[in-house]
Amino acid sequence: MTNPLNDPEISRKMNYYSRLKKLAVHMKSNAVHPLDLEQAAHIACMEKTSFSRFFKKAVGINFLLFMQQWRISIAIAQMLESDCSLTYIAASVGFDNLNTFERTFKKLTGYTPSQYRKLRLAGRRVSPKTTDSEGYIKAFSQTVAA
After folding, report:
1. Are the beta carbons of 23 and 40 closer than 8 angstroms?
2. Residue-wise pLDDT tens digits, 125-134
3. What is the CATH number of the domain that holds 27?
4. Could you tell me which residues come within 8 angstroms of residue 136 by beta carbon, excluding any fewer than 6 positions away?
């Protein structure tokens, strides 16, 4: 899973709109601080509902899914670069609850955080799961290439 801010298509769309460009700059410079829809709307100088509709139309995915992908991509980087506990990593990327982190992680990657870490640390390449247009897993067969 890649950071959605590093995805060339999403980045192009976010840089096209000055409101979203401000949001991207804020997210990159404040990666460890949680960001919710209301704060994002404030940064973009919009009302919450208007921002939500605008974001979905401009970027192509809803803000909640975008934030989940962003947080999980940061968590993956932390998991591979450190031996911090999953509880610590979950909290550091904005998840207040470990169960929510694990559920979101599995929904987006097809693996639990501990499975993913074990596979990557064992030197195995973790194959991405097939996802639908919203970014959710639709095929649950686990394929791990050696």
Report:
1. yes
2. 666 555 554 5
3. 1.10.10.60
4. 107, 108
Q: How far is CA 110 from CA 8, 23, 46, 130, in A?
A: 23, 28, 34, 9
Taking the chain, what is the end-to-end CA distance rounded to the nearest angstrom? 18
Q: Whole-model pTM?
A: 0.77
Are 97 and 115 in contact, with CB atoms under 8 Å apart?
no
Handedness of CA 138, 119, 77, 35 (dihedral sign): positive
- E runs forming strands in 1-146: 125-126, 144-145
27 C-beta neighbours (distance < 10 Å), count: 20
Q: Do the bridges between strand 125-126 and strand 144-145 make them parallel or antiparallel, or are there none, so unpaired?
A: antiparallel
Q: pLDDT tens across 40-68, in order?
A: 999 999 999 999 999 999 998 899 999 99
Count of structural domains, the chain: 1
Segments forming the whole domain that contains residue 37: 4-145
Answer whether 27's CB lies under 8 Å from 35's CB.
Answer: yes
Q: Two tokens at 39?
A: 């704060």
